[in-house]
Write a structure and sequence with these properties.
416 residues; alpha/beta; 15 helices; 17 strands; globular
Length: 416
């Protein structure tokens, strides 16, 4: 079996089971010897920023000399990206071997449950000291929540997402995310609305879990090379990730490192600074090339797009940008596009590779009806070629709207 054949076998399963809950993953991991019981974790849930936060934290822990697992979703280009140890994705041979072991033990588990089991076996085999574990959907009933009490339970920015499953208010969604908090851990919360904060505080109070809420960081400088900031008088710290929201995510990392230090993990200031500076998170406000600048961002909800628009305005004040974009029809894509219209010189639209995609022609027609200039394109390659041909050396091109197109754009730009 090859790595791709292993991925294809996992993808044959349904993503979500008819009966939500942890029973299936509990039984599967039991048949595999409960690898999760032999590992240490930082567990991260949230609507936005959890992947970036996980990537920065994993980079810091690796810089501290800890063998660090990183479990994230979705992948941008290769399935292997979901399972990393010290920044290196699982090998073809490793993926094939572990998939065979997991499938031999499997029964009626979902795709994400199989992925979670794959990760647990991978990280135990690799001898990881600690695993940074990102939830897939929600928290309370997410298959990653099968783990014992983590060292730290982290809740990043919470917004309206998957409302049919998680609830239709930020507070209801926060309660699902806070389901990862367990007695015996410490919790860290991204500073946000009082309603969300009250929900998480209540959970921590009932479970007698110490909670840290992040304070606003102080930005010192920001540009295409990265951002420098201080936090509660400490620093300065530098991150290569772009977007003002990433500085707030970095504050979550700083507080999580403080939790880990209190619990006996040796993480020096030098490791903290190196890890933050070296962290990369592809496809999230990623500067892919210069002259013209090409940025790639996988934000795919109105909250993400609002943050992207603010960051673009800060990076390119007064400049109109060229957008390569595609959206899924079941997202609130009109609210997303409304964020981009005031910043756009023109749009090149594509149809993402998903049965839920809105067609490039329909999206272009809607943008034109709102006063934008829009050209529908056949493929991501066609759209990227046209956008780059229209851009002068001083222009900026931003590809955004759906993660389904960002992996392909990265490949075309020679990044993977």
């Amino acid at each position: 079996m090859t790595g791709q054949e292993a991925a294809d076998l996992v993808h044959q399963r349904a993503w979500v089971g008819q009966r939500p809950g942890l029973d299936r993953i509990r039984r599967l991991l039991g048949r595999l010897g409960d690898p999760q019981e032999k590992l240490k974790f930082v567990h991260i849930a949230g609507s936005n920023g959890k992947g970036s936060t996980a990537a920065m934290l994993a980079s810091v822990l690796t810089a501290a000399g800890l063998k660090t697992g990183l479990y994230t979703s979705p992948h941008l280009w290769r399935f292997h990206e979901r399972f990393q140890v010290d920044g290196v994705p699982i090998s073809d041979a490793g993926l094939a071997d572990i998939t065979a072991q997991v499938l031999e033990a499997a029964e009626d588990e979902t795709e994400f449950e199989l992925m979670t089991a794959l990760g647990m076996v991978c990280f135990l085999r690799s001898g990881c000291d600690i695993v940074v574990l990102e939830t897939g959907l929600g928290g309370r009933l997410d298959s990653t929540n099968i783990i014992p009490a983590p060292e730290a339970a982290v809740v990043t920015n919470v917004g309206l997402e998957h409302t049919e499953l998680l609830g239709d208010t930020a507070e209801q969604i926060a309660a699902e995310k806070a389901g990862i908090i367990k007695p015996g851990c410490e919790a860290v919360l991204y500073g946000q609305s009082q309603g969300v904060r009250a929900v998480v505080e209540d959970v921590c109070r009932r479970l007698e879990v110490p909670l840290t809420v992040t304070a606003p960081p102080r930005m010192l400088s920001a540009g295409p090379e990265g951002q420098t900031f201080t936090y509660l008088g400490a620093g300065p710290y530098h991150i290569s990730l772009l977007g003002e929201y990433q500085v707030s995510n970095a504050a979550v990392v700083l507080e999580t490192v403080n939790v880990l230090r209190r619990r006996g993990w040796a993480i020096s200031e030098d490791a903290l600074n190196r890890g933050l500076s070296q962290a990369r998170w592809p496809g999230r406000m990623e500067l892919a090339r210069r002259s013209p600048d090409v940025l790639l961002d996988g934000g795919h909800n109105p909250q993400c797009m609002e943050a992207l628009a603010r960051s673009l305005q800060a990076l390119y004040p007064g400049k109109k940008l060229i957008f390569l974009t595609g959206v899924l029809a079941d997202k609130n894509w009109t609210a997303m596009m409304e964020q981009l219209l005031p910043l756009a010189k023109e749009f090149y639209t594509i149809t993402p590779d998903s049965p839920r995609a809105k067609s490039a022609a329909d999206l272009a027609a809607w943008l034109e009806s709102r006063g934008g200039r829009a050209v529908p394109c056949e493929t991501v390659r066609d759209g990227l070629d046209q956008a780059l041909a229209a851009a002068g050396p001083q222009d900026a091109v931003c590809a955004c709207g759906s993660l389904y197109m960002i992996g392909e754009a990265r490949r075309l730009l020679g990044l993977c």
